Structures are given as structure tokens and as C-alpha cells.
Amino acid sequence: MSSYEARFRVWRGDIEGGGLKDFEVEVNDGEVVLDIIHRLQSTQAPDLAVRWNCKAGKCGSCSAEINGRPRLLCMTRMSVFDRAETITVTPLRAFPVIRDLVTDVGFNYSKAREIPAFVPPEGVGPGEYRMFQEDVDRSQEFRKCIECFLCQDTCHVVRDHEENKTAFAGPRFLMRVAELDMHPLDAAEESGLDRGRTAQDEHGLGYCNITKCCTEVCPEGIKITDNALIPLKERAVDRKYDPLVWLGSKIRRRSS
Amino acid sequence: MATGTEPSPTDHRPPSGVRGAGRAAIAAPHLRTDRWWLAPAATAAGLLAFVVYSTWRAFANAHYYAAPYVSPFFSPCLAENCESMRSGPNWDLFGSWWSLSPAVLILIFPLGFRLTCYYYRKAYYRGFWASPPACAVAEPHKKYTGETRFPLILQNIHRYFFYAAIVVAGILTYDTVLAFRDEHYAWGHMGLGTLVFLVNITLIWAYTISCHSCRHIVGGQLKHFSRHPVRYRAWRFVGKLNAHHMLLAWVSLMSVALADFYVYLVASGAFDDPRFF
Hints:
The structure holds two protein chains of two kinds.
Chain A lengths: L2 E12 L2 E12 L4 H11 L19 E4 L2 E4 L13 E5 L6 E3 L2 E2 L2 H9 L18 H10 L7 H5 L1 H4 L11 H11 L13 H7 L11 H5 L6 H17 L2 H9 L5
Parallel strand pairs in A: 1-5
Antiparallel strand pairs in A: 1-2, 3-4, 3-5, 6-7
Chain B lengths: L37 H23 L4 E2 L2 E2 L32 H13 L2 H10 L30 H21 L13 H18 L2 H9 L8 H14 L2 H23 L10
Helix pairs in contact in B: 1-3, 1-8, 2-4, 4-5, 5-8, 6-7
């Protein structure tokens, strides 16, 4: 096993202020950035705050920015970096900082609460749900989300424009709307809730300019833009901007 | 904590975005160390090159027909001032009052299709408007409303340009069939130009069919695929193509320019079309 001394710059501070602090730290074969952050904690900076849990890319806790790119600390191998380069680790820059690498991601939870939940179909009890695989494939892709909020962090709509946080739910929660709108048993429409329309009117779908950063950073490889946001935009067009579809829906109620 | 990363005293703009109140105090608009600027720069250069070339060709209004080939920029030719093309795509809808290049009349449709295309939107928002220039690189704009207001709300009419693009692709297919003639209009012949047209029309169809609006129309709008097996298969097929939409957007853009350039070379006499049979 070989090891070397890597140069790290880690953001230290809190809401009052802070900055990048330089470290030199040992790196061994097979380690990920989170290992190095833990080594810093144990050897040089015992009060360094970092949020982590599973260390397997499944809990979505250790989101941060490494060399300016939103990534999971636990899924970023040290071997992807040149040994001579300085690796910069900062907290997510779209959310308020609490301390060091820990941010307040409460924005995401408030947005989650704004999305109306799954509406159970009438007359079908728990345990009686039956669905064809091809009908749930699309929604299941979105269920892979680990809620690391890297997509929310990288989305320039809120990252660069704090004022848009009120109107825009962000890619993760627009994907949630898409997941429910494509769910074969969701009875929202029957209950008077038009998810396609509310995506545009209440969750700010129109702010998305489909520049695909959410897809680029997703550690689960979910095709957020192509499979959720663009189909949702097309559904919103059906409801709001396509007179032919509007006319068709008036003439006959869709059986699909 | 004084670390040298606080905003510069010469920067008088109120801090916002990643430098806004509450966010980690980092003055740099981004900390990326890779060549993030390369992709938007290459995209902008590629699109600009096509715009310059197509504008020159459209307004030059010359050397667009060399029997049996007609430039895809001028097909169908909708004005009286078009060159006469035997059995070709002459369709004098606009009569003699149209004095500009007839290419302008038809290029509106493929231009609109590509301008409102979900891939090209990403490309030019990043490449020309820096919104954002790259992921996690701060954009320079103080305000952002996305596609919620005029004129960008018009991006929602993409599907109508898709319908028009189907018609245009159909006409270009007809032109490709006509390319199986020789310069004396005899059928059953093929030249290098025919091959160029075949490649071009294949790529044009692949790009058109791989469109996100097409994917929605053929099946994406359904809630239950199991009740519509034919549309489900169509949706899956378009989905496979759609995964390569960016690639198809670029190669079809290049092929249409190359097909036009080939016709220009033959029509201007700079090159003789080699005949295979």
C-alpha cells in the first residue's frame, strides 16, 4: 500500500464568516475524500464539522463541493486527483452555512412539504395495489433519489438567485411531481389536482432552463432533466399552451 | 477569520447568489479547477460558425441547384424567383412579390425547431447567455426569470415546430429520392451527391424523431403504458434515440451544411459530381 501527503484547502467558519484553511494530510490507496476529512478531524482539526452517515453513497448526508463541483465526499475517490494538486473542499454554496462543511438544507424540506402527496385511488385498499412493471418504471427511476440535494445545490436558479427560492421548488421536487404524475395509481386528477399545471403555476417549472446541471451531479445517475423535467414541461404545455390538446381533452376525456 | 477569501474592497456590487448573506464566505464565483469553459466556448463557436455559413448561403441566393440536387436550405422553394427544378420541390406559394432569397421562407421552420429544441436551449443558454456558463460556476446576471416570461415562454411552442420539421424532413426525403437521377433526369442513377443526401436525410430524421416533444407525443404523455402497447414500444424506441439527441443535433447540423456545400460546389462548377452508376 502506498501513501502520500496531499494538500487540502478546507473551508472553516460559520455564518459570521470564515475562509479556506490549508492542510497537509496523509492519503492511502483506496481512500475517498471523506476518509481524508476524517483523518483531518482525528489528527489536526478535531472540531471540524462534517455531516456524514453511511459512507456508501446511499444516505445523501456528506454532500459538499470538491474543487468547486458538488459531490458526495464518500463517493469521490482520491485517485481521481493528481497527487500534486491542492484539493479544495467547501460546504454546499447554495444553502446557508451552519459550521465548516455543514449547511442548513431546510429549504429542501420546506419545498418537500409543498408537494401534495400521493392520492390513493378510491376503492383500492392497502395491499390491493396492482401495477404493471412498465407503468411504474418511470417513477421507480426517480425513487432512487437519496436526497443528497446536490441537484438543488448546483441549480443556478436558486444557487445564483436567492430570491427565486420562494417560487422555485428545484429539480429534486419537480422530479417528485413528475414521479407522482406518472404514477399509475395516483388519483390526483380524479380529486381535482392537476399536477402538470401546478408544476408550472406553483412549483416554478418555468424557471428551469434545462441546462442539465442537476443531471450532471446526480450521484445516482438519475436522468433528471430528460426523464423528469422535460416530460413535466411537455405535460405543462399540454395543459397550458397547446390549444389542440386542450380541445381534445374537452371533446373526450382521456382514457390513459 | 481573516483568510483572504473575503470580497474585494473594490467590488461594489451587493453580494448575492453564492456570495450572498448566510452562504459560506467565499469571494470566488466558483472554485472549479477543470477546463469548464471549454464546452460552452466550443458550443458557441460551433453554433456561430453554422449561423455565419447558413446566413451567407441563404442570402447569397445562388448555386443552390445542380440537377438532380437541390440544396436543403432552399427546399421546398416557395417563391417565383426560385430556379426551376424538374419534378423538384418548386411550390410557388408566394408569387412574384417575394424578392428576397426563397431560403428565408423555409429556413424559419428548421431554425425554429432547433432554436426551441431542448438540447439547443441548453447549448445556447450556456454558450451565449452564460446562464449558467457551466455547472456551479456563478452566472453574471443579477436577475433570472427563466422561461416564465416573454420571449422565452415561447419555447413552449416547440412541438409545433416539431410538426413543421416532420413536413420539412418529408420534403427533403423526396429530394433524396430525386437524387437517384442523373443530370439529364434519367432514373436509376447514383452519384456521390446521392450518398451525401442519403446520409443527411438519415441524420435529419434521426434528430427529428429523437426530439423530446416527439417522445412525449408518441407515448410520454400516457399514464398507463400497459394499456397502449404499440405506443409504449414507440416511446421506448424514441427514448433510445433521445438519449443521443445532443449527438444527433450536432451531426445533423453538420450534415445539412455539408449537403448544402456539396450542392454549392457542384452548382458553381468547382467540383464535378462523381457518378457511381
